[in-house]
Design a protein that fits this description.
With about 400 residues, this protein is of the alpha/beta class. It is about 35% helix and about 15% strand. The protein is built from 13 helices and 12 strands. The radius of gyration is 21 Å and the shape is globular. The N and C termini lie far apart (about 60 Å). The structure holds pyridoxal-5'-phosphate.
Length: about 400
């Protein structure tokens, strides 16, 4: 009854169909929520491919195939959060191994690297990745992994994925890319030579601010087997209800991303021309330091925009951040609704102030996740809050 997957050639078709087929028992067009922890066996070891739901669940399987297809990868694994997905990748390493990563990372990633894995004997180098050649100075015989995020959170720096992949390959090191900000609609790191793509599915993939989930996608079977072993052994696997919600959310990913990009551009340009704003961070500006790389590796610039307020101390910044009426003041991003966030005290509070400021996360920085509402209401809300 399933359709021929080779017919799903383009993104919007894959988003809706890949990995899914009508329920073989009833013909239901939506993948059912297999809300079960175990599966009956005819005799020990004889079952229909499913034994225990931590290891395998049909709803999650459909989602894993779908996300893998969107990233042009062979294998997908879904986790109970983005951090759970990252945790599995770092568990490929052992004490004494070293990781090279950026100095402008999601706060939770920085916290996990420094507070959980450094004490276990894994060493992390946090460096400026605006030029991938900086990696070369930090490679030694213990380097096992390069972990990058692009665009970075929250200062929207762009890291050259192909250049990092070239360095990783020539030194026999793994390259993992946190593709959360771009989403697979705008950027596909495996096509550019990365070994592993990671998503906080919580964000654009889920898209409706109702699920926390993570994912990894890869092409190499040996890597998949090691990661699937960690996935099942350590157990950060998502439930079937959440898997269903994300399958449903992804069906509109391409449509949502088009509007996120369009609204993001309007917001970035509006902020850039506003007298209360000192600087806007958005990779779509021609004078963004790595605009050319962004144009080369992304199909659009996304809906994330950050801005520094002019002459605003912490009190004034808080006042503005709390004055929005259409944007909501909240952590997270990538949902249909617009959010404003104060990185220094919210998403990036776990990074020490001096480290944070080095990467540009100053007290007067606000980050916007531009949603897909009517742009006129979003601009009016910005106008109002910035006049406070
Ligand atoms: C949110 C986020 C994460 C963590 O994902 P969770 O789903 O919250 O665990 C990792 N990286 C980036 C870029 C994120 O925005």
């Amino acid at each position: 009854m399933g359709k021929d997957e080779s017919l799903f050639r383009h993104f919007g078709t894959k988003a809706i169909h890949a990995g899914q087929e009508p329920d073989p028992a009833t013909g239901a067009i939506m993948t059912p929520i297999y809300q079960t922890s175990t599966f009956v066996q005819e005799y020990p070891g004889k079952h229909k491919g499913y034994a225990y739901a931590r290891g395998k669940n049909p709803t999650r399987d459909a989602l894993q195939r779908n996300i893998a297809a969107l990233e042009n990868g062979k294998f997908g694994l879904c986790f109970s959060s983005g951090m759970g997905a990252m945790d599995a990748v770092i568990k490929l390493l052992k004490p004494g191994d070293e990781v090279i990563t950026g100095n402008d990372l999601y706060g939770g990633s920085y916290r996990m690297f420094t507070k959980i894995f450094e004490p276990m004997g894994i060493k992390f180098h946090f460096i400026d990745l605006s030029d991938a050649r900086h990696i070369l100075k930090n490679i030694n015989s213990n380097t096992r992994l390069i972990w990058i995020e692009t665009p970075t959170n929250p200062t929207m720096q762009i890291v050259d994925i192909s250049a990092c992949a070239g360095i990783a390959q020539s030194h026999g090191i793994l390259l993992a890319v946190d593709n959360t900000f771009a989403s697979p609609y705008l950027q596909n790191p495996l096509d550019l030579g990365a070994d592993i793509v990671m998503h906080s599915v919580t964000k654009y993939l889920g898209g409706h601010s109702d699920v926390v989930m993570g994912a990894l996608v890869m092409n190499r079977e040996d890597l998949y087997e090691r990661l699937a072993f960690i996935h099942n052994s350590c157990g950060a696997t998502p439930g079937p209800m959440d898997s269903f919600l994300v399958l449903r959310g992804i069906k509109t990913l391409h449509v949502r991303m088009e509007r996120h990009c369009e609204n993001g551009k309007h917001v970035a340009e509006f902020l850039r021309n506003h007298p209360a704003i000192e600087k806007v961070f958005w990779p779509g500006f021609a004078d963004h330091p790595n605009h050319d790389i962004a144009k080369k590796q992304m199909r659009g610039f996304g809906g994330m925009v950050s801005a520094r307020l002019k002459n605003a101390d912490l009190e004034k910044t808080f006042k503005i951040a709390s004055s929005f009426r259409v944007f909501s003041l909240a952590e997270s991003l990538g949902g249909v609704e617009s959010l404003v966030n104060h990185p220094a005290t919210m998403t990036h509070a776990s990074i020490p102030k001096n480290e944070r400021e080095k990467s540009g996360v100053t007290d007067n920085l606000l980050r916007f996740s531009v949603g897909i509402e009517d742009i006129r209401d979003l601009l009016e809300d910005l106008r109002h809050a910035l006049s406070i």
